[in-house]
Specification:
With 353 residues, the chain is of the alpha/beta class. It is built from 7 helices and 14 strands.
Length: 353
């Protein structure tokens, strides 16, 4: 299928610049049939600028089956409102502390509000960039399904609920149950080492096909085995998030490299083995980290502390554990910082609120 996205009749309808990185040094796949994917080609026009551990009760965590997520759960054309807050002003390359030496549950540096928006009701889209995602070679560890079921259960979870204490220029995060709007596959060629501009362009292609050009949109750009973007490599990171202009609006996106592959290229453990002993623990730890930060600081101008650390940074690789999400699946995750819990209990890195 070239240059288009097709949607099965049974698929669900979507409901009506400082780059932030997750450093690499620190410490299952769900079963899915190989199905036809929604794809689009590199010929699609791109507009806009660029910005900055799983256990299911059915033992699903121990499988490593490749294949795309269920076809009926692909992303649909967005039919909601398209308004967004004022475009953020900041879009630089402010760094996090190398290897997260600043992460501490007892830090006295609370998150400070800087005037920007928080995502009040996120629209999460998992974008599987590259044709090889449907093959054993491109996804030998089954991360497509793993990420799909993780994001499917985030909405309304205790992991996300801690974020409700933070508000911004457009209101407060409400932690609705249905935050995941589905997955899609981008069949355009993936560079061996994508640039930040390439990652932003992938997000814009997805937004163009889906029609969701709002700041609540989170486009999670996952690259297949053998691909790590340049910024991740250069900064010794595990993942990062940013925003980009999209016409008169703006959207957010996350770069998620294929962590089991990344671990083979150097000292990039990225949480591997730190919770359950599985080399896939870090996959959802990093996904949780970037999700939390995108909600709390989508335009990189909302919530971060005096050192520039966001809510995920302050709890990086801290108190990792397996939690059950709202879809019944269990995943290893990391905590997100809570100003209230730090004040009340002396520990800012807790799960529930």
């Amino acid at each position: 299928m070239t240059g288009t996205i097709t949607y099965p009749q049974s698929a669900r309808q979507a409901p009506a610049g400082r780059t932030r990185r997750y450093c690499a040094t620190a410490g299952v796949a769900a079963v899915a049939a190989i199905v036809a994917a929604a794809v689009y080609s590199s010929g699609d026009a791109v507009t806009g600028g660029h910005g900055h551990a799983l256990r299911l009760r059915t033992h699903i965590s121990h499988t490593t089956e490749s294949g795309l997520p269920p076809v009926a759960e692909q992303a649909q054309k967005y039919a909601g409102a398209l308004s967004s807050p004022v475009t953020p002003l900041r879009q630089d390359d402010d760094e996090e502390v190398e290897h997260e030496e600043n992460s501490s549950p007892t830090s006295t540096k609370q998150l400070i509000y800087h005037g920007g928006a928080v995502q009040t009701s996120p629209h999460i889209y998992l974008v599987l960039w590259g044709e090889s995602w449907s093959t054993q070679a491109g996804d030998p560890n089954g991360l497509a399904s793993r990420l799909h079921y993780f994001y499917q259960g985030v909405g309304g979870s205790s992991l996300a609920n801690v974020l409700t204490e933070f508000s911004g220029s457009s209101g407060s995060f409400t932690n609705p149950a249905d935050q995941y709007y589905g997955w899609l596959q981008d069949s355009s060629p993936v560079p061996a080492a994508p640039t930040t501009e390439d990652m932003a362009a992938a997000a814009l292609r997805a937004a163009s096909r889906i029609g969701d050009h709002t700041y609540n949109a989170q486009y999670v750009i996952a690259t297949p085995w053998g691909v790590v973007d340049q910024y991740t490599e250069q900064q010794d990171a595990c993942g990062w998030h940013n925003w980009t202009k999209d016409g008169s609006s703006w959207i957010t996106y996350t770069s998620l490299p294929y962590l089991p592959y990344y671990a083979t290229t150097g000292d990039h453990t990225c949480g591997s083995g730190t919770v359950t002993g599985s080399n896939l623990d870090g996959v959802t730890m990093v996904a949780a980290h970037e999700y939390e930060e995108t909600v709390n600081d989508p335009g990189l101008d909302a919530w971060y502390d005096a050192d520039g650390s966001e809510n995920g940074d302050k709890c990086a690789w801290t108190n990792g554990k397996v939690i059950t999400l709202t879809n019944g699946y269990e995943f290893p995750v990391q905590t997100a910082w809570s100003n209230k819990f730090r004040t009340q209990y002396g520990d800012g890195c807790l799960y529930t609120k």
